[in-house]
Amino acid sequence: MNNPSLDRIYIRDLTARCILGIFPEERTKAQEVLINITLFSDTRRAGKTDCIEDTVDYKNIKNEILTLVESSSFFLVEKLAREIARCCLRAEGVEEVLVTVDKPGALRFARSVAVEIFRKKSDM
Question: Which residues are catalytic?
């Protein structure tokens, strides 16, 4: 699945609100989504130099994801996950990404429904 020679940077439990869903009641009011991201990158140079310029700027990625999600109005969680992956893969140093998007309360009697996707730069 992923390249074992790459390191991982995690963004865990990022919460955002957006229009998401196929039903009319989902198209009018923003809903909360929970996003978990694993960024695959080579962090060896940053580990040596201790310089931000040598690693992935995960704060910038987080800000771009929030801007994307909060301005989106996709019908499917799969599409939202794909666009988040694309956003991550545009970042310098990110070679692969694992994205999970949870839509809490999407199903009665279930805490959440989630979609998880894995993408490489070459996939996009």
Answer: 103
